[in-house]
Amino acid sequence: MIEAHSLTRTFGARRRPTVPLAGVSHLFGDGTLTYLLGLNGTGKSTLLRCLSGVLRPDSGTAQVDGRELGRTDAPARHLGMYLDADAFHPGHSGRRHLRWLAAQTGVPAHAVEALLRRTGLEAVADRPVRGYSLGMRQRLGIASTLVGNPRNVILDEPMNGLDVAGVLWLRGLLRAWADEGRCVIVASHDLAEVEATADTVLILEGGVIVARGTVDEVRGPHANLETAFLAHVPRAAGALRVRGAA
Questions:
Q1: Strand 2-11 and strand 18-28: pairing?
Q2: Backbone angles phi, psi at 125, to 5 degrees
Q3: C-alpha closest to that of 188 among 140, 238, 149, 225
Q4: Which of 18, 91, 117, 127 has its CA 20 to 30 A from that of 179?
């Protein structure tokens, strides 16, 4: 379980700050696959970073399993996160990266081999990460979240760069995590994937949550999640009209 309580975060100069989060509150429950939707710059990544303790909010709190993450024993067992496709040393191999994480977490080194198999990286495990495709780096990032076998998982755009087989694999993995009772939070732009698989959907716009609920609740009277998104985020509809006139 992950809780956001009135999270606010600003960037930039005081006179003209950017406000990606303006008092966001939500309870992300156990056994739930939650997707965050929103245009670029609407606070999805900032929210994930505040929830995971990577970024300190200006005000408000984030709690993982009822406590602030920095005050928990063995944080990696409470939360696994993957927020950046370039968050690896380019000269390290995938196996070395995972072994380093395992050592930091107190996990036996042999557990890394199971992770490599589970994420389909056995064949490239000893190659330098600098030679990995985006899809391979995504798989390595997902493997990284699993090192501590955490009860909560946060992923930022994990399907970018995956081929069809990779998307199907990740879809099943996310579903399995939620069905095991984990809290799973994913930021995505893939509305069709969200509509097919989400338990809960949050739409962010202007630093606040403008819609939340099950897919059916957020879709409401609209034909699909895409048209519902355009209704909740008029700015997106405006951008489409501008492109159509160009």
A1: antiparallel
A2: -60, -30
A3: 225
A4: 117
> Full-prediction pTM beyond 0.85?
yes
> What pLDDT, in 10s, does the model give residues 56-93?
999 999 999 888 876 666 677 889 998 887 778 888 99
Strand arrangement of the beta sheet that strand 183-187 belongs to: 79-82, 152-156, 183-187, 32-37, 200-205, 208-213
Q: What is the CA radius of gyration of the chain?
A: 18
Tell me which residue range forms the domain holding 37. Answer: 2-245
CB 136 within 8 A of CB 64: no
> How far apart (Å, rounded) are the C-alpha atoms in residues 5 and 25?
5
Q: Exposure pattern of 44-70 as b/e (b: 16+ CB <10 Å)? A: bbbbbbbbbbebebeebebbbbeeebe
Residue 145, pLDDT > 70, answer: yes
Average pLDDT value for residue range 116-125: 91
Whichever domain contains 56, its CATH number is 3.40.50.300
pLDDT, position 40: 85
59 SS3 class: strand
Based on the structure, what is the number of domains in the chain? 1
pLDDT at residue 13 in the model: 66
Mean pLDDT for 11-18 is 72
Residue 185 exposed, middle or buried by CB count within 10 Å (0-12, 13-18, 19+): buried
pLDDT at 241 over 60: no
CA-closest candidate to residue 144, choices 92, 180, 66: 92
From the list 10, 157, 4, 15, the residue with the least C-alpha distance to 86 is: 157
